[in-house]
Write a structure and sequence with these properties.
There is one protein chain. The protein has helices at residues 2-38, 68-75, 77-110, 114-125, 132-143, 148-156, 169-192, 197-205, 210-221, 223-238, 242-247, 255-265, 269-311; strands at 54-57, 60-63. It is an all-alpha fold. The protein has a domain at 76-267: MetI-like (MetI-like fold), CATH 1.10.3720.10.
């Protein structure tokens, strides 16, 4: 028993790390490798609907490696790269809109009475307790030409004809805001709740106005929350399928819809896999940038801590 306890103590940390690592390898890394190699093959009729990338046949080793799927994406860029650019545009502006709404809400929650914070956070998480599909259908009922908003505006005499809000960029942004706003609020709140009030008071005592305090103190200290929340919104928004399918029109075609069409309608898995690899590359760019910024921030913090330690050493002056 003593030896077993010692073994668990010695290898317990490795076991804890190994379990999620195995899960990621089986359900993330291996499917990613499969998608990547499928993108270099040719389509065929049958199951699976693509030629094997490599193998052994009667004549020995063979390979079907080619770049025709990626060349096809470039040749018909309006059908493939166009929706990819549209996805980036809609996801970027959706992220900015979520940030504009989430920042004051997170600040209000962080600066509210401690007894009320739990209730306010529950209200933020409340939309996650209902199906996103139900929320999108509720939004359709509001934005339709004969929906609640147009009906009320016509009844009040504000407008003479129903406003066109469905199948526009506006409807996409509203759907993104309704779906992803909590993902922006929570990282911002986690950063703002650790903000020291003494820093704000010191800046005010030194003569800084509210705008200057926000620009020089609050904004830099909450930047990690802004980056984390923006990534949590931007990455799933780029590949969003349900919102543009229900709220958007032909001009709001996003890459998620194109992927679904290639996989399930056209059954062209190699082209769809090449498009999926392109989407992964697009999403990797902001992640790498965020890691780079985090590394720079950590290095600056270490330099600042070292400078402070040198200043307080006896005889440092």
């Amino acid at each position: 028993m003593m030896g077993q306890t010692t073994w668990l103590q010695r290898n317990g940390r490795r076991i804890v790390v190994a379990l999620p690592l195995i899960w990621l390898i089986v359900f993330f890394f291996l499917p990613l490798i499969e998608v990547a190699q499928t993108s270099f093959t040719m389509p065929r009729r049958g199951i699976p609907p693509f030629e094997p990338l490599w193998g052994f046949g009667k004549d020995g080793f063979f390979t079907n490696f080619n770049l025709e799927n990626y060349a096809l994406l470039l040749e018909y860029w309006q059908d493939y790269l166009g929706p990819a650019g549209n996805s980036i545009r809609l996801a970027l502006f959706s992220t900015i809109i979520c940030l504009v709404f989430a920042y004051p809400m997170a600040w209000w929650i962080a600066r509210s009475d401690p007894r009320q914070r739990a209730m306010l956070l529950v209200l933020v998480m409340l939309p996650f307790w209902t199906s996103s599909l139900l929320r999108i259908y509720a939004l359709i009922g509001l934005l339709n030409p004969n929906g609640f908003i147009n009906t009320m505006l016509l009844f009040l005499g504000v407008i003479d004809a129903p406003l066109r809000m469905m199948q526009t960029d506006f409807s996409i942004y509203m759907g993104m805001l309704l779906t992803y706003l909590p993902l922006m609020i929570l990282p911002l709140y986690a950063t703002m709740i650790r903000l020291d009030d003494d820093l704000l008071d010191a800046a005010a005592d030194l003569g800084a106005g509210r705008v200057a305090v926000f620009r020089t103190v609050v904004l830099p200290l909450t930047m990690p929350g802004i980056i984390a929340g923006s990534l949590l919104v931007f990455i799933p928004a780029v590949g969003e399928f349900v919102i543009p399918a229900l709220l958007g029109g032909p001009d709001q075609m996003m890459i998620g819809k194109v992927l679904w069409t290639e996989f399930f309608r056209s059954r062209d898995w190699p082209v769809a896999s090449a498009l999926a690899v392109l989407l992964l590359i697009i999403l990797a760019v902001p992640i790498i940038y965020a890691r780079y910024q985090d590394g720079r921030t950590t290095a600056l913090d270490q330099q600042y801590d070292e400078a402070q330690q040198n200043d307080i050493k006896p005889g440092a002056a």
